[in-house]
Design brief:
Layout: E1 17-26, E2 32-35, E3 40-41, E4 53-63, H1 67-73, E5 74-84, E6 97-98, E7 103-112, E8 129-138, E9 148-160, H2 163-173
Antiparallel strand pairs: 1-9, 2-8, 3-8, 4-7, 4-9, 5-6, 5-8
């Protein structure tokens, strides 16, 4: 779905929730911290409602090394991919989120609509956010002795359940995501 004007969102009935995604990788033999795509659940492990729309509001990104060391050590700029468990093979964002530097509460307006899950499969009846980092960070002198590196993405989102708003949104933005 495309971004809709914020003033039209019925947010007064929903408290913002923070979804935290952490991924840790070990130092490899080439002296790099390689983040391959590895889809994992967020915390809290909240089951998303099929009849709701989720408004992503802000993003916070950081790691367990100093910001200047992260920037200096980047070989292949890390990016963040967002998935829904029911559609784990396809990212929910047209472009992954570039992570050249750490940032805090960066405004990010995006609406996500979970897919209705049907059938008897393992995932039927549930849907959750999944995330993954991708990129390569080298072990520079300030990171010598560090054998693992953790990156963290925090997404602040709100659940919208207003049926009239959702119906209008679907009608207005159908096929434009």
């Amino acid at each position: 779905m495309r971004n809709a004007p914020i003033y039209n969102f019925p947010l007064k009935y929903s408290e913002p929730e923070q979804f935290v995604f952490k991924q840790t990788v070990q130092l490899n033999t080439a002296g790099n911290f390689l983040f391959p795509i590895n889809k994992q659940r967020f915390t809290p492990d909240l089951i998303l409602e099929d009849e709701a729309v989720y408004y992503l509001r802000t993003l916070t990104f950081g790691g367990d090394v100093a910001a200047e060391h992260y920037t200096m050590a980047t070989i292949i700029e890390p990016v963040f991919h967002l998935y829904l468990e029911s559609e784990a093979g396809a990212p929910q964002l047209k472009n992954p989120i570039a992570l050249p530097i750490y940032f805090h509460n960066q405004l990010y307006q995006k609406l996500l609509e979970p897919t209705v899950l049907e059938g008897d499969g393992l995932l039927a009846g549930t849907n959750r956010f999944l995330g993954s980092f991708e990129g390569t960070i080298q072990q520079i002198p300030p990171l010598i002795g560090k054998t693992a590196l953790t990156l963290t993405m925090i997404i602040t989102a709100q659940e919208i359940t207003d049926e009239t708003f959702i119906a209008e949104l679907k009608k207005t933005y159908k096929g434009t995501s």
